[in-house]
């Protein structure tokens, strides 16, 4: 594997950054997780835009333009002969001193890794997940706003640990008011009376790119989509529930806090969206090898 670091490609064993990089010392940086399907990068512009929005929110200057970043992502795919894969794009504050003052960091570090995707077991998609709400709440939007896809993922990691220790694969995080925000690395949807509902961004949900694609697909089917505040009761009494994320795609949820959702099987709306999403991802995106797709 060849890894992009600050404009150069390094073999995996040589792909290293300084221990004084504030991405490591303080989780000071932003990132994106992106997928490539069939020789194309899915929703690349949306991921690049969100990366720059996250950076803007933390006053991190990315040392290259969005157009250069786009080309660097595509070139990293080419260097690794990727047609289907997972791309991790990381921009840290860069190398600084041991103090946390970010102004001592001269230049942001840009890292792009393009490799194979570690998929969830097929069973998750066929049978659906059992998930729980956990004690760790989503960050307040006046702290590190959950809309910022920052390198500081401890909040999600703590929630994930709580879910795994309870024998579940995924955690639902509530916000400080007790409304549903999202899962540790995925957005959450419910289906009720033929309408799709997902928490509003103000509840502490990431502006998920899969979330938006799924909302668009649902509207194209003529289904209503809304973004109300959801309580645990709203989850327990939903007809269907599923999670969305770039890596996970669409995963059905069949049990929440011990309550069976719907009839305990992935529902028809979820299944239809999974099929539509699969078709869309395999047939759109930024060509990695122009002229060859
Ligand atoms: N929420 C969180 C906390 C995430 O880390 C992710 C994964 N990026 C998502 C939601 C899903 O976002 P997307 O569909 O853009 O991958």
Automatic annotation (TrEMBL):
Cofactor: pyridoxal 5'-phosphate
GO biological processes: isoleucine biosynthetic process; L-leucine biosynthetic process; L-valine biosynthetic process
Record-linked SUPFAM superfamilies: D-aminoacid aminotransferase-like PLP-dependent enzymes
Top EC class, one word: transferase
Keywords: Amino-acid biosynthesis, Aminotransferase, Branched-chain amino acid biosynthesis, Pyridoxal phosphate, Transferase
InterPro entries noted in UniProt: Aminotrans_IV, Aminotrans_IV_CS, Aminotransferase-like, B_amino_transI, BCAT-like_C, BCAT-like_N, Class-IV_PLP-Dep_Aminotrnsfr
Source organism superkingdom: Bacteria
Record GO terms (molecular function): branched-chain-amino-acid transaminase activity
EC number: 2.6.1.42
Cross-referenced CDD domains: D-AAT_like (cd01558)
Pfam families, per the entry: Aminotran_4
Catalysed reactions, as listed in the record: L-isoleucine + 2-oxoglutarate = (S)-3-methyl-2-oxopentanoate + L-glutamate; L-leucine + 2-oxoglutarate = 4-methyl-2-oxopentanoate + L-glutamate; L-valine + 2-oxoglutarate = 3-methyl-2-oxobutanoate + L-glutamate
Any Gene Ontology CC annotation: cytosol
Pathway annotation from the record: Amino-acid biosynthesis; L-valine biosynthesis; L-valine from pyruvate: step 4/4; Amino-acid biosynthesis; L-isoleucine biosynthesis; L-isoleucine from 2-oxobutanoate: step 4/4; Amino-acid biosynthesis; L-leucine biosynthesis; L-leucine from 3-methyl-2-oxobutanoate: step 4/4
Family, similarity comment: Belongs to the class-IV pyridoxal-phosphate-dependent aminotransferase family.
Protein's job: Acts on leucine, isoleucine and valine.
Protein name, UniProt field: Branched-chain-amino-acid aminotransferase
Species whose genome carries this gene: Limisphaera ngatamarikiensis
Name of encoding gene: ilvE
């Amino acid at each position: 594997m060849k890894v992009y670091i600050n404009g150069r490609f390094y073999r995996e064993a040589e792909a290293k950054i300084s221990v004084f990089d504030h991405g490591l010392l303080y989780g000071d940086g932003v990132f994106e997780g992106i997928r490539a399907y069939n020789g194309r990068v899915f929703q690349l512009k949306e991921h690049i835009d969100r990366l720059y929005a996250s950076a803007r929110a933390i006053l991190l200057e990315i040392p290259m333009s969005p157009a250069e970043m786009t080309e660097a992502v595509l070139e990293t795919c080419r260097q690794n002969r990727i047609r289907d894969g997972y791309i991790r794009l990381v921009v840290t504050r860069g190398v600084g001193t041991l103090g946390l003052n970010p102004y001592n960091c001269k230049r942001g570090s840009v890292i792009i890794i393009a490799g194979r995707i570690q998929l969830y077991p097929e069973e998750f998609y066929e049978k659906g997940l059992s998930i729980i709400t956990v004690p760790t709440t989503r960050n307040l939007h006046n702290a590190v706003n959950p809309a910022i896809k920052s390198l500081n993922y401890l909040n999600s990691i703590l929630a994930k640990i709580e879910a795994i220790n309870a024998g579940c694969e995924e955690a639902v995080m509530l916000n400080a008011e007790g409304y549903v925000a999202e899962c540790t690395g995925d957005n959450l949807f419910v289906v009720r009376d033929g309408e799709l509902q997902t928490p509003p961004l103000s509840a502490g949900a990431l502006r998920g790119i899969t979330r938006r694609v799924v909302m668009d697909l649902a509207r194209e089917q003529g289904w209503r989509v809304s973004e109300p505040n959801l309580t645990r009761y709203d989850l327990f009494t939903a007809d269907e529930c599923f999670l969305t994320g770039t890596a996970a795609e669409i995963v059905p949820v069949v049990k929440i806090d011990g309550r069976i959702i719907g009839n305990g099987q992935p529902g028809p709306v979820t299944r239809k969206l999974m099929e539509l999403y699969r078709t869309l991802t395999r047939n759109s995106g930024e060509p990695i090898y122009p002229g060859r797709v």
